[in-house]
From TrEMBL:
GO terms for molecular function: bis(5'-nucleosyl)-tetraphosphatase (symmetrical) activity; metal ion binding; nucleotide binding. The keyword Iron applies. The keyword Nucleotide-binding applies. Pfam families: HD. Its EC number is 3.6.1.41. Keywords: Hydrolase, Iron, Metal-binding, Nucleotide-binding. InterPro entries: Diverse_Catalytic_Enzymes, HD/PDEase_dom, HD_domain, YqeK. Residues 23-151 form the HD/PDEase domain. It comes from Longibaculum muris. This is bis(5'-nucleosyl)-tetraphosphatase (symmetrical).
């Protein structure tokens, strides 16, 4: 695993320095946009802004290594791989970012680590922080322009985080964007569907 240089202890500054050092300017712009949106959602839903901010800053920190290196790190740490991760090792980046957050940035807050670790796929029984970072990552996406689903998510977020997450995953499925669904997103979808059904009763 790559060794990250000595850090100052100021997370915002250190993330910026590391991503600059590895020439990840696009990733840096993305994570700071996700952090901004995560804090806004934390305020909207009256939860801890620090947790959302820290998780968002570190959610893509593993971008400093290649997908092949992510696979090597996963094997080194004995992670059980989902078939989707074996086929598309980039999907490991959420879990490798957790390792980097703990090993190099001394993050031990389980809420922060959980939100980092499922920001791409979500998972069953997600916490409010998991859902906020998941959605902020999709809203502040790393492509040009506004995401085509932005209006849908903004409307959903007036109702609940759960509805926004459910509708996003369902849209991905219906549009065939999930070429090889990770088990976690299947479980998240089933869990959220049960939640939505219960709410409509």
């Amino acid at each position: 695993m790559k060794k990250i240089e000595e850090l100052s202890g100021c997370l915002e500054q250190d993330v910026s320095i590391v991503l600059d050092r590895y020439h990840k300017e696009k990733t840096k712009e993305h994570v700071f946009q996700v952090a901004k949106k995560s804090v806004a959602l934390a305020r909207q839903f009256h939860v801890d802004e620090r947790i959302c901010f820290e998780a968002a800053l570190l959610h893509d920190i593993s971008a400093i290594v290649s997908p092949l290196e992510m696979l090597e790190i996963a094997n080194e740490y004995g992670l059980l791989l989902d078939p989707a991760e074996k086929k598309y090792p980039f999907l490991l980046h959420q879990r490798i970012s957790v390792i980097f957050a703990k090993e190099f940035f001394n993050i031990d807050d389980e809420d922060v680590l959980s939100a980092i670790g499922c920001h791409t796929t979500l998972k069953a029984h997600p916490s409010v922080y998991d859902m906020i970072v998941f959605l902020a990552d999709k809203i502040a996406w790393d492509q040009q322009g506004e995401p085509p689903y932005l209006a849908m998510l903004e409307k959903d977020l007036e109702i609940s985080l759960q509805k926004a997450c459910f509708d996003f995953i369902e849209m991905q499925w219906k549009e065939g964007r999930l070429l090889y669904p990770h088990q976690w997103i299947k479980e998240a979808y089933a869990d959220l569907q049960e939640y939505m059904n219960h709410c409509s009763e």
